[in-house]
């Protein structure tokens, strides 16, 4: 994932112009794949883990970010 982020930064010119350092737009730009942004504010802990588990079973690319 860091390599994709670096490639996206190069594509856009630098890291500063990227949207808050989120990986979704970078992955979408480089692969054409859609992305979903889900936070723990969107759903409870159990529901979030179920979403992650289903995404992994569906072989989605997953990234994580903490603030």
Helices, by number, come to 3
Number of domains: 1
Name the structural class.
Answer: mainly alpha
Order of helices and strands: HHH
Write a short abstract of this structure.
The chain is mainly α and 67 residues long. 49% of the residues lie in helices and 0% in strands.
Describe this structure in words.
There is one protein chain. With 67 residues, the protein is mostly helical. It has one domain. The chain has helices spanning 2-12, 23-31, 45-57. Helix 1 (2-12) packs across helix 2. The longest helix is centred in the C-terminal third of the chain and has 13 residues, at 45-57. The protein is globular, with a radius of gyration of 13 Å. The mean pLDDT is 82.
Q: What is the secondary structure topology, with strand pairs?
A:
Blueprint: H1 2-12, H2 23-31, H3 45-57
Helix pairs in contact: 1-2
Task: Looking at this protein, list some descriptive labels.
mainly alpha, globular, 3 helices, single chain, 67 residues
